[in-house]
Amino acid sequence: MSLPAVVISEVASALGLVPLVWLAGQRARGKESGPHWSWLAAAFGISWLADSAALGIDPWIVSAVYPVSQAMLVGAVLLTRVDALQLLVVLGVAGIVGIAWEGVSGPDVLLRTVACGAIAGIAWPRSDLGRLRTALLVYFGVGLVVWWGYATIREWPSWGTAERLAPLLSRVGLAWAPWMVTALTPAWLGYLGYHVTRLVGVVLFCWAETDHRAPSRLTLVHPRRGTAHARGQ
Question: What is the pTM of this model?
Answer without folding.
Answer: 0.77
